[in-house]
Amino acid sequence: MAASFRVFSLPIICETTTNNSHPHALDSLHVRRAAKIADKSAGFTSPHPNFGCVITSAGKVVGEGYLYAQGTKPAEVQAVEAAGELCRGATAYVNMEPGDCHGDRTAVSALVKGHPLQHLRGHAVRALRSEGLQVDVLGEDLKSKLVQEALKSCLIVNAPLIYRAASRVPFSVLKYAMTLDGKIAASSGHASWISSKESRYRVLELRGRSDAIIVGGNTVRKDNPRLTARHGRGHVPIRIVMSQTLNLPEVANLWDISSVPTIVVTQRGARKSFQKFLASKGVEVVEFDILNTRDVMEYFYNRGYLSIFWECGGTLAASAISSGIIHKVFAFVAPKIIGGKDAPTPIGELGMVEMTQALDLIDFSYEQIGPDMLISGFLQPLPDPTPGIPSVNETYAIDPFVTPYESSIIFFYKTWDLYGAFSNFSPHPIQMPDENGEYQTWPSVEHYYQAHKFVGVNDPIARDCVEGIKSAKSPEEAARMGRTMQRQHPDLVRSDWDTVKIDVMYRALKSKFSIYPHLNSMLLSTAGSVLVEASPHDLFWGGGRDGEGLNYLGRLLMQLRSEFLGESLTSSESSFLAP
Questions:
Q1: Rounded to two decimals, what is the model's pTM?
Q2: Most buried of 191, 386, 455, 461, CB within 10 angstroms?
Q3: How many angstroms separate the CA atoms of 428 and 72, rounded?
Q4: End-to-end CA distance of the chain
Q5: Neighbours of 71 (CB within 10 A)
Q6: Residue 386 burial by CB count (10 A; 0-12/13-18/19+): exposed, middle or buried?
Q7: Which residues contact 564 (CB under 8 A, 6 or more apart)?
């Protein structure tokens, strides 16, 4: 199984020596450290887990690393490289089992070669133990109160993945700011600002941990928000507007998609003329027969979203809570009193008439931020991770993108399934000739592809963009940079891009599968099978949610496979290659 499904596995400790007495306090401390550094990548690794690794020798930390994003160097490899020779005979702590995608054991190999680490149950644990490493699984091989607390920290750092797998909707966080007397605005509707500058900065950080931010139509009309994150640096979540009637203004910050897309969800048939207006702005409109929060979240679950940040008013918040899709709450309470019988409150009518019906927060905490108090906690208990790694036939119950397929069709989608290394986002550098015929190293196929939208354009901005994409820290970051520049400066995209982009991708894929023998073997092992890139929303390179996509990435891989095999395509493959 791929790493994304190992949220059900437990953290472990892996040692190169046999020791029957484990210093649980120190072990727990290092495991919590692994979870803490894993959290640094929240928002960047989606839809994959947050992963951290700590290596210690003689009780001292000698190496650390965390997975920055998909397609970047594994945390275990970073930690082993940092520790150097000190990792021999050392102990490694990870917050979950190492990823081990089909045909690519980079993370596991790093631990075996360095003889250090710790992990969970599953293929990686067996691989490590087979090499003579001692592997202890927290909660199984090690048990104590401190161990349980460390285990909990490991689960919480990947809570979005765990909740999503259990509830079949994205992990949803409701955030609001209110006065001491429970108002989110004055009776007039004025709400700027209830919370302090420090609290508002924290909100920017929280937004950046999510795939998308959702607001209601009332918020758009009254506040005209931009819904940016981290002051424009790093990951920027998609904006979602939920409006039943589409009674929305024509002038709104959210209709500017030059930096980040906006999706509007609405009732089928609502204001068709306004839908056309939004489409002319590049805003995606999705219609529902009956608009409700659960159906909307199930829809975005099917699109692959991991987490959603709700910044809506009381009516929409109440609907989301009532439908059982809100998992966590962040409430910023300002030391102010505004009063007002008609002043809005953060949560609308829930139909409760007795205090015994009130919803209690679980694992709640308090934090002072400037003059404000932040109260946060879960509305639903953390799902039990003990069921273990699912079988192939059980994976569809956890995520529909990984399906129990027939042998004649192989689905892949990024790195969370067996054949994730087929993705153009996989962490495999390639060598490609430049305009002068000299070979240059590119961090991934996606880096090369995005940069070549602007290669050869005689403009300093385009040249700077190429260099910026080439040095991007991850394939996702390279993709964001390329797509953003394409939206903001379409005039800088090479004029022949639509004609050459398929060839650009093919040449990059050919380099990747020629350089790495294990990837070449994996591709050739699929002979006779149709390859489908199962992206639910990329209808050009992927197959789409219902097979409506063109699946050009799958087509190119099958074409490349045939070239390597020196064979012509089978009739079934040819039908998939045809547009």
A1: 0.70
A2: 191
A3: 9
A4: 32
A5: 28
A6: exposed
A7: 513, 520, 523, 524
Q: How far apart are CA 49 and CA 2, in angstroms?
A: 11
Cβ neighbours around 132 below 10 Å, total: 11
Element (DSSP H or E) covering residue 171 = strand 171-179
Phi first, then psi, for residue 576 (nearest 5°) are: -75, -30
Cα 541 from Cα 82, distance rounded (Å): 37
Q: What are the tens digits of pLDDT across the range 337-363?
A: 999 999 999 999 998 888 999 999 998
Which residues, in sequence order, are CB contacts of 460 under 8 Å at separation 6+? none
Average pLDDT over residues 77-87: 82
pLDDT recorded at residue 142: 60
Per the residue annotation, which of 15, 76, 311, 533 is the catalytic one?
Answer: 76
For residue 20 the two structure tokens come to 């029957």
Report the C-alpha gap between 201 and 369 in whole angstroms: 10
Separation of alpha carbons 11 and 484, rounded Å: 38
Query: What ranges in 329-470 are assigned the alpha helix state H?
Result: 395-398, 445-451, 460-470
pLDDT digits (tens, 9 = 90+) for 87-127: 777 888 887 766 554 445 555 454 444 332 233 335 566 66
Rounded Cα–Cα distance for residues 149 and 142 (Å): 12
Token pair of 458 as six digits: 């005689």
Tell me the C-alpha distance between 27 and 14, whole Å: 11
CA distances from 546 to 404, 420, 445 (A): 16, 20, 26
Could you give the angle at which helices 159-167 and 145-157 cross, rounded to 10 degrees? 70
* Residues 150/117, Cβ–Cβ less than 8 Å: no
Judge whether residue 23 has pLDDT over 50: yes
Helix, strand, or coil (residue 56): strand
> Is cis: bond before 47, omega within 30 of 0?
yes
Percent of the chain topping pLDDT 70: 78
Q: Which amino acid is at 484?
A: T
Who's near 261: CB < 8 A, 6+ residues apart? 238, 239, 282, 283, 284
Beta-strand pair 328-334/171-179? parallel
Number of Cβ within a 10 Å radius of residue 252? 19
